[in-house]
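User: Last request for today: this protein with iron/sulfur cluster, please.
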Amino acid sequence: MAGDSNVKVGTPEEAVARIAYLASDVVVSVQPSLATDSEFSSHLKRFVNRKDQSLVAKSADAVPEIHSVRHNADPLLSVFAPIRAGRLVSVTTTSSILLSSIAHLYRLASLPVVLHVALAPKSFPDYSAITSIRNSGWTFLQSESLQEAQDMALTAHALAIRSGKGVIHFFDPTSSASNVPISPEDTTVVRDILNLDNVRRFQAASIAGSGIYADDGRVALAPEQVESPPVGSRLGGVSASEVESAASKATSHTSSKTSQQSVTSSPPSVSTATTIEPAAPVVTSEHIYNYVTSIWSSLNELVGRQYNAFEWTGSAKAENCLFIFGSNTALFSEAISQAQGDDSFANAGILTARLYRPWLGAKLLEAIPKSVRRIAVLEQVSRKTTKWGPLLIDVLTSIKSSVGGVETIVGHQLGYISRDTVTQALRGIFQNLTSEKPIQNLEVGESKPPQQTSEYGLEKPKIETAYTKILDQLFGDRAFIANSLESDNAGISDTISASPAFGFGALLARKERKQKFIAEVKEAAGSGRFLTETPKRSLAKWVASNEDAKKAEQAAEDVVSKLTIDNSRLSKTLLENKQFFRKQSLWLVGSDAWSYDLGNSGVHHVLASGENVNLLIIDSTPYSERAAADANRRKKDIGLYAMNFGNAYVASTAVYSSYTQVLQAMDEADKFNGPSIVLAYLPYFGEHDSALTVLQETKKAVDLGYWPLYRWNPENENKGEPNFSLDSERIKKELKEFLDRDNKLTQLMRKDPQFGAVLSQDFGTEIRAQQKRKAKDAYNQLLEGLFGAPLTILFGSDGGNAQSLAKRLGTRGRTRGLKTTVMAMEDYPVEDLPTEENIVLITATAGQGEFPQNAKPFWDAIKDSTELDLASVKYSVMALGDSHYWPRKEDKIYYNKPGKDLDRVLSNFGAKKLTDIGLGDDQDADGYQAGYKEWESRLWEALGVANIEGLPEEPPPITNEDIKLASNYLRGTIVEGLNDKSTGAISASDGQLTKFHGTYMQDDRDIRDERKAQGLEPAYSFMIRCRLPGGVSTAKQWVQMDDISNELGNETMKLTTRQTFQFHGIVKGKLKPAMQAINRSLMTTIAACGDVNRNVMCSPLPSQSKYHREVYACSQKISDHLLPATTAYHEIWLTDDDNKKTQVAGDAVQDFEPLYGPTYLPRKFKISIAIPPHNDVDVYAHDIGLIAIKGADGHLAGFNLLAGGGMGATHNNKKTYPQVGRMFGFVKTSEVHIACEKIMLVQRDHGDRKDRKHARLKYTIDDMSVEVFKSKVEGLWGQQFEAPRAFHFDSNIDTMGWTKDETGLHHFTFFIENGRIEDTAEFQMKTGLREIAKIHKGEFRLTPNQHLILSNVADEDLPALKTLMAKYKLDNIQFSGMRLSSSACVAFPTCGLAMAESERYLPVLITKVESCLEENGLRQDSIVMRMTGCPNGCARPWLAEIAFVGKAFGAYNMYLGGGYHGQRLNKLYRSSIKEAEILEILKPMFKRYAAERDEGEKFGDWTIRAGIIKATTEGRDFHEGVAEEESDEE
Ligand code: SF4
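Assistant: Here's the final one, the structure of the complex with iron/sulfur cluster:
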């Protein structure tokens, strides 16, 4: 194997793994869990990663497939498909799986599979795992040392191939623990022994099989010529001919004795009985013996090590011998060899079975020296099923029936023996053996090893508990999970008690017990044995209602209290079983392993029983692996099976897709009077997968219809309701067919016609290829009539630049008389490439030198192609990138990498360059334009169309300003777009306009690729943001918002950094209802986004409610004052479709925007109000920041006004920067909205409307200077700013927990991590808050740090609220100081600008640094850490003490040195670092901070004092003196 020249092999598992790898096409690696390696799999993975090749593969460079399977997921099932396909399969496993795989073992025995079995438990293996399967028809080989493990592994493979039958190679791994490491196998020897001719013969013939569970009647047949050992070779002193004759004698001898001794002892197959096979004989034990001796003989010749069917060690004159079937043979052998002459066991011999099955009695006789009189058989078998040990019976039958000198054979049970106890054990054995009346079955050694280490536990993956937790929440004590691991099944092993079959039995027993109890109760009710009268009535009532959960619950309470009062003997007896008074919700948990053999599975049993039992089946196959898993194992659809059965409630659910649907399904299942099957999707690759992986896999599966969400209730029919409800949008073909058959689909579509369109696009239709073809052909037809040379322009675009360049190039080409075609690379049929004449590729650079999404399929198709011949094609590439994006020298290769890759590959295929690659660099003064212009002129030159006269003038590109102007005050064609049912999207220009209405179009990026692959448009949906000045909402509004998110959105809400509600996942059809619902709750969304004044923020100040009211009123006043005046919002969203009266079309209405004018503002405009000492709104970060100033009378006097703060920036563009607001001066309360207006107007007229990256107020002020800008404002206003008044800030975070305000009302600040309001199985925060809102009389305040305050709680209302808070764990604020001070923006999956994860990742990152904070005593310290997915800066990262801003997937820029109370910007510390580097940087830094900080010194201040980072004084020096200078060297 590669790189193994100096390696030594240290463990038998490694030796075995190496051989298995070399000798297999597929290795099934049985593991404790997918995330935990076995002793074999760690090696196998290493070989695969190195791409080591197998010796048996058909193609020279093939690497074997390693198929990892969990030990409790029916692992041998994975063997059938590949072995039947003519691939050599081996399995590496411990013995723990053997017994439960017995059915498979019988079927696999006639196939050349090799099982390498490490005996378990490791501390003291139980050999009964082997003896109990000894008659399954396999050949068994045993190895007892490291070297033997290598040799027997090889023998096993060679023997399987030669005999065509299964071979089990077993060994106790600890027996060889003290062996010296051995040399790795010699591959030449391996190749010789395996015999590649035999290998090819097997691989050439795939085995037809009817199915895994049907016996296909296959029996292994011997090749025409029975092999004999090479002529002249001697086997352990016996000549080849002697072997032949001995072998035949052995067979005739043994076969007449017992069928157990033949390999063909597997159950007779149908075909053996009925088919006449005149040619080759069935493989017999004789054949096996001949093959194995031939293999060993060759091995001996090649490596000089000899093996025999039975191994004898010791004197040839021994009288006594031990036949050991257990660990420690070496230990016994050593003790015997060191024995003194007077020791009873001196000179004893030892026998072991190398070839355990077929059992060749005659060979045993040959192996035993004639001198032997007594044999002690030692069996290490813990689980005894027969009186006599299996080996003892084998030995007895072989020896007693023969004529020989053996007089005594005594069986012993071998316990744990150590070096210290071996002599003592030997003495005991020999004393017994040589006594007159030896005791059979004497135990020797300790029955238990000193320390029993636990082996593969039946531990369920943590994530899998999600569903059982829900059961617990829903039904509490009523839930009874019959086969849960925690259930108490005394004396029954975990493996059995956790099995569904056991669980089902337990459920039935429990039901019977309940029936008996009911009978007892009935009898009791009629008896006179109570002391009081009342129990009788209660009991009778209970009997009548015990089947109805709700009634039973009430009746149960009554009965229990009456019985307790009665206190008679009878009462006490009944109370002993009081759990039966309540209706139990009986559940059985199964896995998708059942779906492979439905007819024999627990599913079938439950359905057929008709019992009122609920089955929860968890399917964990990841969507991305479904194809591979299904092909191998032929999974069936349990849902369909159950629906076809007819009598069951069936639901298909996925907790990571819809939590509420799971609740609904489980509740319905519980109520259904009959069997219920709830299928639950929980896909994961490894048990330690993060919730994010599970979520992403779930989304793909549900969205594309692989795992549809539905509920089927046969009882609905009686109520006149449809049986079937679809809870997701797409279904797969089989389900559609089922519904079609019953007309259910028509009913469904009639009921909800919108489903029609999606339902007809079922999962699995491969339409992408045809689509591409059709589009291209249509385009070609269009071009038909044109003259000129053809030019195909393909683009790969990320942010849109490459696409618009390509389109413009296309237009320019056409004006030059070329036949141009422009398309995204992904839409281009690659097979057409060789037929192109001229082709141009324009590509952007994504992430770390990757191709943009819409170019990936094209690149994947060509990069490894071996067939493309582009000799007649001319091409050129234009690459767009940023030479500083990855500033480290070693990362320079990423600059324009996709373009360069394309250029190289096309040239390799023989294409000729039209002109050299063009390189556009964002760092150039003109951006990529400089490189582009130069390349374009070269291109026209090369195409001979450079100097064309009279080219028409090009229309300028449409800008946002054009869109606003042409929109007729924000109307555009939004209404038409909403009515277009053919797409989930709206047009790009309407997309800009809807922002002004508070909604953005987005698409789910988690499933973007998957949908593309299916030929579907992206999963478009809308984000809606409310306008909520100061973040104050009533309790009623909270409930209304909660309803909207459940009914119209994605079941979650986000509390944003601008103190408002945001909904995600609202599909186009639900957009208008959602807007109307928001308006009904007396909120609006107008101007929540767009180039207007956005939601006005205000410190929530729970500690001073009266003062808060005064300041908050100003935020409302400013918000109202600056609202756009257009009536478009009302027309579009709030009128009914048929309300023609208020519906105003097109230009009919002339709106007027007194403040904004028809083009509104150049860019967004943000205002916030801070109430010192709290700077929780980050007052410096907004276009206008107002600092409330309290007058001497304790009332609001006015505000200090800051202007020109702003967060947005662009990576590597030094012209952009975050900025802090500059002080303009003091304004009185009555004037504040006017001052804000005037600042907005100056910005309206002077802001940059050409370059949106330079359009914010901060740039206008910086370009104009504060003085000039301020004077313009004062000029418009007619007043002057007063001198600023004194104020003081001490932090910008929220204080969690309870506060009491000056009026005596209470306020509680909840910790809502990153503002996400959602329910999970672990934490029902959303439900909890809803319950609280239902009874809360005060208000809610959303905080600027995305948390939530329960405000204005009176003393008398406290207890009820506290109870609810405790019930839903909402009173928990015990988090680290860093977590409490953290904040992240949304980013993936919905934000279109996100370059990296944020909201879903920051909590994970914090968890990883918390232990380090703890170690350094910093757990309670507030360190402000923020993260955003891009430099747009929604979570105001630039003011944090530590910030991470997304650069590419998994990579972040790190910033340090922000001021603790938001007064100072931070600065770039490291570029593009990933998690490992982040942790490497942070950990030592925290340590230093803990040791070096001054009293009360904050982290941000310390990083500056310690010289780690320079202070940023204001935005314009943000890029100065960064810690990591970008390297300019190429
Ligand atoms: S900061 Fe960027 S990634 Fe995060 S939500 Fe805002 S725009 Fe999206």
